[in-house]
Write a structure and sequence with these properties.
CBS-domain; 3 helices
């Protein structure tokens, strides 16, 4: 099955286009751990942090650029940023992902639980991790 194209997402919700696989760091993650994750893949654009499933915030590599202490908790540098809800229109997820500078938007439910991420492909044509595709 092909990934969901942006121009075919009319009528879909954020839940329909949420990436099928995502990872989140716990509140105890260190700067070193998050840096290593960013370095492991070019598709790692934003690190999501959660405490017992509840969204804490996100980081981009630049947030860690001046961190000298590798053991520092990364959560101290996290920023809440904007999020979308699973029931929002897919277009809202697309717009937030495109405006973020990372092509990613955290998906958080009404209780504050991190449920995923909306991710737009580098070619700006589709949603990553949808339609049975894993990566971006």
């Amino acid at each position: 099955m092909a990934r969901t194209r942006l121009d075919e997402a009319s009528g879909l919700t954020v839940a329909d286009v949420t990436h099928s696989r995502f990872s989140a760091f716990p509140a105890t993650a260190t700067v070193a751990e998050v840096r290593a994750w960013f370095d492991a893949s070019g598709s790692h654009k934003v690190a999501l942090l959660a405490d017992d499933g509840r969204y804490l915030g996100c980081l981009v590599p630049e947030d860690l650029a001046d961190a000298e202490d590798e053991a520092e908790l990364a959560a101290a540098r996290a920023r809440p940023g904007q999020t979308v809800s699973p029931g929002d229109p897919a277009k809202r997820g697309e717009e937030l992902a495109l405006s973020s500078g990372t092509l990613r938007a955290p998906v958080v439910d009404a209780d504050g639980t991190l449920v995923g991420v909306v991710a737009v492909t580098e070619d700006l044509q589709g949603f990553c991790g949808t339609g049975g595709t894993g990566g971006c």
